[in-house]
Amino acid sequence: MRVKQLEHFMGEGWQLRPAGGATGEAYIAEQGEQKIFIKRNSSPFLAVLSAEGIVPKLLWTKRLENGDVITAQRWVDGHELKATDMNDTRVASLLSKIHQSKDLLHMFKRMGNLALTPEHLLGKLMHKRERANFEDATITEAFKWLVENIPLLSEENYVVCHADINHNNWMSNGENHLYLIDWDCAQVADPALDLAPLLYIYIPKTTWPKWLEIYGVDMSVSLLNRMRWYMIVECIDNILWYRERNGVKEMLKWSDKLKNVLKERD
């Protein structure tokens, strides 16, 4: 939906501008002193996320004649976390709250969403590689390791994962409240799906035990192995993504990261 169409929907006096993001469906709407965040077809469990204080407060939801759903949230004057901010104890606490939320899990399952198993995730990644027709010795080695080390975790222990924990998706307001926004990629999965990229990318390994203690678990061998598995998947996925877009610098960065994770002792 174009900005002019949304302005017409909002009514006289509202001015909209793109709010950024990968989907291009988010806008900042302003009318005088009023300022709200508008999005088309955002996560269907936004109401639960809002009620639990995980995202900024949901103000209203409206369905258009064409079936699109428009949501409005309270605008938060704050800032995105920097990569160096991710060691903040609030990050571990909020992610723990999300992973422990039975309301989120119940709503997600009620909508018919199936759990993302390691086997399913690996199959999707293999398909991406075949489509890319990309031969690489390190990736071949990585796939062999993934097949031989598929994580074992009962689906009853799966949680709602955000699945895109990039530091840009964490927002702190002026009152020191932390939000995790942009839930378009959310999945029911092993919590290690979120923990792996967060810890590997942002948290020094020497502080993993303390970070996980705040999160609420021990740094067990099982968890470490599962995080390693999901991190290798993350690396391959990013290599293929940047290769398709000719992002050579980023592709090499993820390739180096993949080699380092593969070199870890079993």
UniProtKB/TrEMBL annotation:
The UniProt entry, under Pfam families, shows: APH
Q: Which ranges carry the Aminoglycoside phosphotransferase domain?
A: 45-228
Domain of life, per the record? Answer: Bacteria
Q: What is this protein called?
A: Phosphotransferase family protein
